[in-house]
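Tip: read the tokens left to right.
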């Protein structure tokens, strides 16, 4: 469970999140808002990539300010741009990379890599150079590499923004089948089908928080779309 208490965040003298307090306990939480409204900063707070200027963020009782490493092991993070996440030359090597610093045996790593290839439809790409993959394949690899580490939670920051429709649908399917609770920042309303709760940010404030139909109607009105 994520608990965000009276959080403010500034980059330099610019305040990008203010007065945010919220507890996230649902399985599927989405975060929407205009560009620059603070969504990505909020997502990064959840695994300690960003530590709040004031206020506290805890994950299962661990404070991101003190327990960053443990929290990053618990909370997988998928970036918008998979190129930021893929670090090894081939698909299989990239899947193994995140597992190598976790004290697992080689046999265990190999087994998890094979499972990740299978689960994410990447078997045929096993020994392909990662840089030659399509955008959708790269994002599937980035997600598979995060999932291979068996995180307790997964945070996605606009995972489909750079993808075509077909790849978006594949990612939506992967997300829908996840057992872990997820928090997803997205503009993509298709991706948010079946979500339990939607948070709406505007200029750094949490301005709506509720079931998808209510929050999304609020968001569309805020955007001047209806
Ligand atoms: P969103 O995801 O809703 O687009 P962000 O959290 O990415 O919002 O950004 C909120 C504001 O903070 C934007 O004005 C952005 O330019 C600024 N910002 C984001 N990251 C940084 C950073 N590392 N340094 C300085 N300003 C940043």
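Filled-in amino acids:
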């Amino acid at each position: 469970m994520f608990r965000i208490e009276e959080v403010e965040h500034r980059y330099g003298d610019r305040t990008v999140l203010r007065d945010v307090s919220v507890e996230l306990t649902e399985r599927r939480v989405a975060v929407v808002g205009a560009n620059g409204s603070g969504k990505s900063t909020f997502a990064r707070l959840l695994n300690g990539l960003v530590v709040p200027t004031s206020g506290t963020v805890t994950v299962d009782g661990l404070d991101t300010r003190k327990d960053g490493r443990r929290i990053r092991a618990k909370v997988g993070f998928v970036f918008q741009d998979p190129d930021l996440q893929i670090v090894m030359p081939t698909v299989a090597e990239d899947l193994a990379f995140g597992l190598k610093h976790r004290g697992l045996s080689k046999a265990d790593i190999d087994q998890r890599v094979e499972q990740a290839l299978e689960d994410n439809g990447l078997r045929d790409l096993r020994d392909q150079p990662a840089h030659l993959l399509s955008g959708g394949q790269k994002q599937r690899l980035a997600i598979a590499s995060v999932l291979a580490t068996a995180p307790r939670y997964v945070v996605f920051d606009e995972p489909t923004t750079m993808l075509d429709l077909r790849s978006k649908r594949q990612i939506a399917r992967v997300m829908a089948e996840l057992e872990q609770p997820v928090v997803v920042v997205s503009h993509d309303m298709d991706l948010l089908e079946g979500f339990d709760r939607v948070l709406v940010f505007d200029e750094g404030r949490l301005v709506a928080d509720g079931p998808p139909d209510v929050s999304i109607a609020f968001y569309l009105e805020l955007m001047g779309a209806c």
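Residues 2-224 form a domain with the Rossmann fold fold (CATH 3.40.50.300). The chain has seven helices and ten strands.
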